[in-house]
Known about the structure:
By secondary structure, chain A is mainly beta. Chain A is 0% helix and 54% strand. Chain A has no helices and eleven strands.
Amino acid sequence: DQQVKQNSPSLSVQEGRISILNCDYTNSMFDYFLWYKKYPAEGPTFLISISSIKDKNEDGRFTVFLNKSAKHLSLHIVPSQPGDSAVYFCAAVSQGAQKLVFGQGTRLTINP
Amino acid sequence: NAGVTQTPKFQVLKTGQSMTLQCAQDMNHNSMYWYRQDPGMGLRLIYYSASEGTTDKGEVPNGYNVSRLNKREFSLRLESAAPSQTSVYFCASRRVTNVLWGNTDTQYFGPGTRLTVL
């Protein structure tokens, strides 16, 4: 049972435009959500997170939106840059739990 | 401050061979994790250690054992490698902070070990 799903394996966006990556979850106990970015031959690096008490969190070009009723979160990157080309993982955890649950990842390609 | 380090970076084994993947963190985190990454499968948790002296199974523990040697080090052992264990392995440590507007919960990953079992 995949509790966190990223239904788009890949996404291609033109440089300067907005990239929107989506993630759905099924477990209503999740109350903290994270996005990680991964370059080839490197480990994932933390990008941005959001608590369930919020519906939006912004950090520079990156904004994460959380829709609890739809059990959906999205990552917006504006404007997209070539260095944003990477695999993006969303992850979720419930308070007090020790384990993050990851989605399958979305490969983002930014075209010049 | 090196963060999370893993050795080796690459390894090729024959079926039935054993090996240990090493992981160390210098951030004084209590919790440490081992994941494997396979195409289309995301990151799947193998084992984790919530604190020194404790270990627990994750989603895919079969064929693996772990040791939390001390607070810094968490190793993953394959006793009898199988081709299905060909993967990229990541170690991570976790920081939870209490801030005024709520907790933050972040895992920091090592660079990975690419393992091929023939």
